[in-house]
Amino acid sequence: MSTPAMTAQSPAADRAGPDHLRTTLRIDSWSTAVFGVVMLVGGKWLSDPLGLPTTWSVPFGVAMLGGAAALALVVGYPKIPFRLAATVVVGNILSCVALVLLAFTDVVPLTGLGRGFMAIGAVVVAVFAEFELVGLRRSSSSR
């Protein structure tokens, strides 16, 4: 005897897309803000071990705080607009590429630790981009 297959999604499955996207964007916002503060406050102390000049860490930290604020604004929408979420994914992909370029070129005189720091940052940003892309796909398919 066989059981009939369920074809309709449960209400929880319908909410999984937007909730997944909103949660990922919120975590991305908070972690970006923390990273920005670390770059601003700790830039002077991180300069020697990473090889990242303070003239780079301060603008980088300010940019991170701006990005965190933008992410928080996107999360604040009652229904996250597709275009804004897609823009976040593209921004994270571009950030990932920039971090890889910084890690594996001599644009900035990074130490080995600094190169590793940038490479790990690239991986983290890529993971956020992937999670946000999954949430975006789920939320657009549940419409």
From TrEMBL:
Top-rank taxon: Bacteria
Segments passing through the bilayer: 58-77, 84-104, 116-136
Keyword terms: Membrane, Transmembrane, Transmembrane helix
Full protein name: Integral membrane protein
